[in-house]
């Protein structure tokens, strides 16, 4: 019995394949492997371990496709017995990418990218940019309104859905040519005399541009893909305050220029003071408005009584307490008065009786 591991239907280029040959002899017989080559058979004994019955094929390619046989010798009658198996290695080859038009692309143009490949099985196509973002499916990708920011590298990924893991990729570069465009520059600066400052200018273009400053200083330049950035360290002078600084970027297709204006520090302080005053006024108005709204809301809910009626309600419990106290005291006084009156009456009656006698 001769079998292929893994399944021969799913073998692809780059896989490691094992052919296992077994027989029920005792003692275990010796095995020899062969691969058919036209009308002949190539001996593969050099790829096995002393007739162990296991043939290892490393990183197979489409050339590994063919018919293999395992042969053994029957020691009883010295006859040969054999078993055959067909191995097919799936592959993808001849991956080609192209674009139309093929050159001289400018901002605003449209370009079509195409991808083709050959395989004995059905293929699908995917397009991704240099960041790995999916851009589309199918063997064509149309890019419209090109800009300098358009990714300059695209990848066509070719896959065979029926054979998991069988895929190939190929890259295509898209270069958009044009006059330099300045994309970032230092905002207006507030400085004082003899201060050391840093000015920044960043541009994008293809072909790669050169960047110059209209003032002298120490410049440090950096490039990232089609971007070029320059940081200029300079000491503030009367001329710099008066004229400002200009960043000029140029290549063979044109030149772009932008101006950086500098201001005295006093102007900044005045502007900041005015801004603080305005903010303070706005905050004060908002606070008063909020307090007014809260007071009005509480008044509507009856939480804050107003006027004489409110005062009466608030003092009413105290009035009741006083009234109770007064009434208690009044009762005591009445009782004491009654007792006194009774005592006085008895005294008066006794006096009258003494008088009458």
From TrEMBL:
SUPFAM superfamilies with a match to the protein in the record: Immunoglobulin
Name under which the protein is recorded: MUC18 protein
Subcellular location(s) of the protein: Membrane
Membrane topology type: Single-pass type I membrane protein
GO cellular component: plasma membrane
Source organism per UniProt: Erythrocercus mccallii
Keyword vocabulary terms for this entry: Glycoprotein, Membrane, Transmembrane, Transmembrane helix
A Pfam family it matches: Ig_3
One example GO MF annotation: laminin receptor activity
Transmembrane residue ranges: 275-298
Superkingdom of the source species: Eukaryota
Domain annotation Ig-like: ranges: 1-86, 93-173, 180-261
Organism phylogeny: Eukaryota, Metazoa, Chordata, Craniata, Vertebrata
